[in-house]
Amino acid sequence: MYMNFTARNYNSRKCVYYIVIFDILINFEIIFVGCLGKKLGPRILGRRPESSVPEVIYQTLDENLGKNELQGRSDIPQTLEEFMTDMKKGGYDAKTFAVKLREMVTLMEQRTRMAKIQEYLYRHVASSSIPKQLHCLSLSLANEHTNNAAARLQLPSAELVPALVDNSYFHFVLASDNVLAASVVATSLVHNFLRPQKVVLHIITDRKTYYPMQAWFSLHSLSPAIIEVKALHHFDWFTKGKVPVLEAMEKDQKVRSQFRGGSSAIVANTTEKPKVIAAKLQALSPKYNSVMNHIRIHLPELFPSLNKLVFLDDDIVVQTDLSPLWDIEMNGKVNGAVETCSGEDRFVMSKRLKSYLNFSHPLISENFHPNECAWAYGMNIFDLEAWRKTNISNVYHYWVEQNIKSDLSLWQLGTLPPGLIAFHGHVHVIDPFWHMLGLGYQENTSFGDAESAGVVHFNGRAKPWLEIAFPQLRKLWTKYVDFSDKFIKSCHIRAS
Ligand SMILES: *[C@@H]1O[C@H](CO)[C@@H](O)[C@H](O)[C@H]1NC(C)=O
Ligand SMILES: *[C@@H]1O[C@H](CO)[C@@H](O)[C@H](O)[C@H]1NC(C)=O
Ligand SMILES: *[C@@H]1O[C@H](CO)[C@@H](O)[C@H](O)[C@H]1NC(C)=O
Ligand SMILES: *[C@@H]1O[C@H](CO)[C@@H](O)[C@H](O)[C@H]1NC(C)=O
């Protein structure tokens, strides 16, 4: 028998005591397995066992254990069964019995607490870690890259290189370390484009994903569209001298790892709610600190010859021809984005600056309005010419620095908060048709609404490549995955 504690009976110490003591009293026969809670427990048992229990047992059970008393101890029974076996061997007086019982129950409670924290963390990890199918895809493509010359094509081919800096093309940028996600964005973009021969898609990836990404796009041509695959370290600008984004990230990671005393100090607080602990641990996560996330603030430097481009996140699907984005009059603004404060969806479309920034902090309250509408990353038009006339990248780094100096008290997560600050006054609001958000937050998004949007964005936890995706919305994404492809098939990536 194993007492499987769950969150529901977290506060069930008394109940366990009753059951165990009662068990002992009825000749070591265990009659009751699960703990149904304080009230139900003793009532089922019929009578309260106090009358026949020595007083010393209650005294001992009421004393609290010191903080580290259980650490490193191997003599504590791990389960109720073990405890009973121990007791049956006999030779224990009432006091020893009570001490052992108290230790066992405390240990179980601590485990329950950790399990609860882990449960909350898992929800986060489930959305940020790489499922094994995607890992498999990356490995098999890397292998293909090594063994098959056709998987090592220069992308694009030499005669198309001039198009990369030609402003008569429609330039898109996608930064991703997820080959499958990138392939959906690319495929959906090109298939829906009216003049695909005018599309240039610049895919930026990291060092470890470069070969798999190159292999995928070598073997899955989207011709006549032009695809460039480049790792960050291939950019001249990146290898030349100081790269503020890397410096900032290094500092940020240092501050995060020591934030609130680091993860062990956070977990050590036994009075804090498991949910709050999980949230604090999450703030330390490197997920919020990847170069891929920060890179868009350096688009003018990464693409010095381009005047205008559209930046796409890898959790979007394009469902329409995006060339009209180039006809939008930006009125000198830098960033064409959808606003996120006026929709019906209370999860993602009710965001104002106060949703992201700490207005209790004077640096924020003195400079910004809490009720100003926020906007979204995911599908943005960037006018690089206008951008180069501003100080946006400096402002961004200035505020990232301020946040680090003030121990992450201006904002805690993500790259949107400093983006909201840096692009303040430089945003041109575009029609919500161009970017529908929230498909990874909640399933109430109607399929019909989503289907009729120009671009849908699976921002939020339920990414379409994860098991936790909302099944009816996932179809919008799987539509652009070829499940008969040999790489997809061999890695067991399935439509549902
Ligand atoms: C633990 O968390 C509680 C509840 O938030 C807080 O009041 C207390 O100061 C914390 N203790 C330590 C040692 O940080
Ligand atoms: C740009 O930002 C930097 C750093 O915040 C500042 O020193 C400089 O004066 C700013 N320049 C302009 C033109 O605003
Ligand atoms: C917000 O700023 C105030 C003032 O600096 C600070 O006391 C508080 O801890 C900050 N809140 C968060 C969540 O960091
Ligand atoms: C979805 O809609 C139902 C019914 O309108 C509502 O009860 C539920 O809270 C909604 N769920 C979310 C996540 O918005």
CATH top level of the largest domain?
Alpha Beta
Small molecules bound: 2-acetamido-2-deoxy-beta-D-glucopyranose
Q: If you compute it from the alpha carbons, what radius of gyration comes out, rounded to the nearest whole angstrom?
A: 29 Å
Helical/strand content category = alpha/beta
List how many beta strands DSSP finds: 9
Going by CATH, the homologous superfamily of the largest domain would be: Spore Coat Polysaccharide Biosynthesis Protein SpsA, Chain A
Q: Please list the strands of the largest sheet in the order they lie side by side.
A: 3-2-1-4-7-6-8
Strand residue percentage: 5-15%
By CATH, the architecture of the largest domain is named: Alpha-Beta Complex
Head-to-tail CA distance between termini = 38 Å
Task: Tally the helices.
Answer: 22
Describe the structure.
This is Hexosyltransferase. One of its GO terms (cellular component) is Golgi membrane. With 496 residues, the chain is of the alpha/beta class. It has two domains: 2-110, no CATH class; 129-490, Spore Coat Polysaccharide Biosynthesis Protein SpsA, Chain A (Alpha-Beta Complex), CATH 3.90.550. Helices cover 42% and strands 8% of the residues. The chain contains 22 helices and nine strands. It has helices at residues 13-25, 40-44, 55-62, 80-89, 94-128, 132-147, 179-192, 210-219, 236-239, 244-258, 262-268, 274-283, 291-294, 299-302, 353-356, 362-365, 384-388, 392-405, 416-422, 447-451, 471-478, 486-490, and strands at 170-175, 199-205, 226-231, 308-312, 316-318, 335-337, 379-383, 427-429, 455-457. It has a seven-stranded mixed sheet with strand order 3-2-1-4-7-6-8. A two-stranded antiparallel sheet has the order 5-9. Helix 8 links the parallel strand 2 and strand 3. The relative contact order is 0.10. One 2-acetamido-2-deoxy-beta-D-glucopyranose binds next to helix 18.
